[in-house]
Structures are given as structure tokens and as C-alpha cells.
Design goal:
This protein is an alpha+beta fold and 147 residues long. It has 5 helices and 6 strands, in the order E-H-E-E-H-E-H-E-E-H-H.
């Protein structure tokens, strides 16, 4: 249920974002989703890719500072208040949401949000106890295809 996310630290200069994406493309690694946060001098590119181990090795060998972290892909009702209901599950602690971003994959009346929690195992327990579906990595890495 935990998904491996790659985080790259990039200079905030023209062309710096294209370079790692080009390397991944040349290696046949598909970017499933991404998030980019920036400061004036640096940015953090967060990636979910089709083969995170191969991608992490490739990027590290190319000289990128590449960190692997665990995130959760959570199905959220695709309606007004759907996200708010999920966030309420964590409003009283002790699990903290460090960041989140959307994933362009959904089924029927569900959207998918990627969450980085400070305590992912406790987050999974809380989500499942509330009847919320936490997606398996294979569903995300392969675009919904179960293998």
C-alpha cells in the first residue's frame, strides 16, 4: 500500500527540469505523476514512476540528489467535500500530513490524492478503519492495471 516516491533537488534554472525527465524517457521509465515545488534557487521534483528502483539508480548515477520516500495513494470521493472528509480523519492528530498532491488517475466517482504522512502505518490504519481505499503500488505504477 505504500508507494515509493522519488524526490530530486534541482537548481531553479532553465533546462534543469528537462534533464532528469529526458534520462527517464531514454530508459523507458514512465512518469505516472509529479509535483514540483520551488524556491528562488532550488526546486524539489517529486515523482511517481513506473520503475522506481531503476529510476533511483539511474538518477543517482547521473549525479542527482535522489531521495526515496513512502507516500500513500488514497481514493477520495470526487465531489464537493470529498477531500475535506479525508482531512478530518487527521484533524485531531497524532498523524500529520506533511504534503499532498493530486494524481490524474481515478475510477468512477473517485479521485486519487497522494499523501506524505509522518506516520504512514498509522495513517493506513485510520484510513482503512474509516472505509477509505488506499491503493496498492501496482495500481499506480502500472496505471490501474493489476498484475
Amino acid at each position: 500500500m505504500k508507494i515509493q516516491q522519488l524526490s530530486l533537488f534541482l537548481e531553479n534554472k532553465p533546462g534543469r527540469l528537462a534533464e532528469p525527465c529526458r534520462l527517464l524517457a531514454q530508459a523507458g521509465i514512465n512518469i505516472r505523476t509529479l509535483s514540483l515545488a520551488d524556491t528562488q534557487q532550488f526546486g524539489i521534483l517529486r515523482l511517481i514512476v513506473s520503475d522506481w528502483q531503476k529510476a533511483a539508480s539511474l538518477l543517482a548515477n547521473a549525479g542527482y540528489a535522489c531521495k526515496v520516500t513512502e507516500v500513500l495513494a488514497v481514493e477520495v470521493p470526487d465531489r464537493p467535500g470529498g477531500l475535506a472528509a479525508i482531512l478530518e480523519l487527521f484533524a485531531t492528530g497524532p498523524v500529520n500530513i506533511e504534503y499532498m498532491y493530486a494524481f490524474p488517475f481515478g475510477r468512477q466517482d473517485k479521485a486519487v490524492i497522494l499523501f506524505r504522512f509522518d506516520k504512514p502505518d498509522e495513517a493506513i490504519e485510520r484510513l482503512q478503519a474509516a472505509g477509505v481505499n488506499v491503493l496498492a503500488g501496482v495500481e499506480i505504477y502500472n496505471g490501474g492495471a493489476q498484475s
